[in-house]
Design brief:
By secondary structure, the chain is an alpha+beta fold. A hairpin with a 7-residue loop joins strand 1 and strand 2. The chain is built from nine helices and nine strands. The chain is 38% helix and 12% strand.
Length: 361
Amino acid sequence: MTVDAELPAGVPGIDVPRLADWLARALPGAGRITAIDLIAGGRSNLTYGITLADGRRIVLRRPPLGHVLPTAHDMSREYKVLSALGAGSTVPVPTTLAFCDDEDVIGARFYLMDFVEGQVLRTREDAEGITPEQAGQLSERLAEALAAIHLVDVEAVGLGDFGRPSGYMARQLKRWGKQWDSSQEAIRAGGATHDVPEYDRLAARLAERLPADGPARLVHGDFRLDNALARLEPRPEIAAVVDWEMSTLGDPLSDLGLTLVYWAEADDDEGLPVGATITSAPGFHTRREFAERYAALTGFDLGALDFYVAFACFKLAVILEGIHARFLQNATVGEGFDQIGEGVPVLVNRAHKVLDTGSAW
């Protein structure tokens, strides 16, 4: 690959000449980079589409710009889990190609994977071409994908050391509490404030309800419809589950709880600035139906699901606060970040409501 004037212009977060040099060594014969673009939609790790001279499309993933939460955005972990699942499981994932741990190439560690044809289904407008029957089938396929992740034999696929499942939920509570503090410090350092009065009380309530440890299971960490690539023809299917940056070994119901928080229904009072509102369209499962299908597939007991939904609200509030901090630092790439901070108190209040009523719905 020759670095010359024929290379496309750069995009935020990518040094194209350095990337071209590295790609020539990592993927010999890949051909010249003819185009590179930011794939819209991600609020955290950045995803780029790269077109090569022969028309092949590949994908690059790197951490976000600006304020990065400690322990977050570990590209090597995302690469490891995708590689393991692609080689030894039925979970649909993209094929990984190469990993770069040299931060001098583009300013951060990154990896490459094959481009997967599919749609990111997110808004009610995306549902205009989807029949109610297809919506129901997509709901089924998504529940099957989540169950497949949680039923993976982690030892058999080489992920037995991928995390520490003992004390997982307690560590999660502590970890996200630290992330919250880090984001608050970043916001204050920029001369701003973002007060959420009920946050501390929520953290205390969750600490009182921490569940006992269960068997080690692979968890995705951010599972939702718009973190998957879907195909509608010839029949609805999940082509690939993506965005594995928070995956580890732990409690699978933490995944289900977060999926239900993201899952919109037609009569919801308040929406979120993230997640797929498309699930409020006719034919999609309700939250209860999705959970019941998941329980039938896995055999897991959902008796404490209200805790996991409340915890998911807490976790997502912390994640949004981190994104809000980067927005205030003018370190976000893309659109819609100006609304992210508004979702934080909504989530905290929703968590209290779930705990007050004891209902996940």
